[in-house]
Design a protein that fits this description.
Elements: H1 2-9, H2 13-18, H3 20-23, H4 39-53, H5 60-71, H6 75-81, H7 90-105, H8 124-188
Helix pairs in contact: 4-5, 4-6, 4-8, 5-6, 7-8
Length: about 190
């Protein structure tokens, strides 16, 4: 089952209580859904981790942890899920967010390539102004596209975990029924 795999991979509640920094906040980590591995809690943890992962900088894990505490979903899964964004994936994800925001707002945004300084024809002030215009042109599509992409990723993660969990349960039940039929035929024969 997925539970066996997740129990081996994720840290336990006791390990987190042994951490000297987290020990003083231990009373917040009491709710059982923060640690239970069921389809609701894990799917919610993936959704919360997807939201936290799109926050730039080092606030990803903190955001996912706070959201997991607030929504009472699996905390280790939420924290682990934030690692889908990293220095290699954050650029393409933000590019998709700009394109998605541009498609929704009808504003194509600025050019894909920022203006480069040309020391022969432009002054530094002209280049700085062109750079500001370029960044502002990305603002509206990014402002709309980033929350939209985050919501889509969270919804997709939630639905994917629920679907995978359901398919795994059905597969296990069929395998168990097949094994039961084989044992029943062996005893009858």
């Amino acid at each position: 089952m997925p539970r066996k795999f997740l129990r081996n991979v994720l840290p336990s509640q006791e390990k987190l209580h042994q951490n000297t920094f987290l020990r003083r906040y231990a009373h917040h980590f009491i709710h059982p859904n923060l640690w239970h591995l069921n389809r609701h809690s894990v799917a919610g943890g993936v959704a919360v981790g997807a939201v936290g992962g799109m926050i730039p900088g080092p606030l990803q894990v903190i955001t996912a942890s706070l959201l997991a505490l607030g929504f009472r979903v699996n905390l280790p899964v939420a924290v682990f899920t934030t690692f889908y964004t990293n220095p290699l994936t954050i650029g393409p994800l933000y590019w998709v967010a700009v394109k998605l925001g541009g498609a929704v707002t009808g504003n194509a945004g600025g050019t894909a390539v920022p203006p480069m300084p040309s020391w022969s024809g432009r002054t530094l002030i002209e280049w700085s102004l062109a750079m500001c215009d370029w960044m502002l042109s990305l603002g509206v599509p990014l402002l709309v596209g980033l929350p939209l992409l985050t919501a889509l990723l969270a919804l997709a993660g939630y639905c994917a975990v629920r679907l995978f969990w359901r398919l795994h349960v059905l597969w296990s039940l069929r395998r168990r029924a097949r094994r039961h039929r084989c044992l029943g035929q062996g005893a009858a024969g």
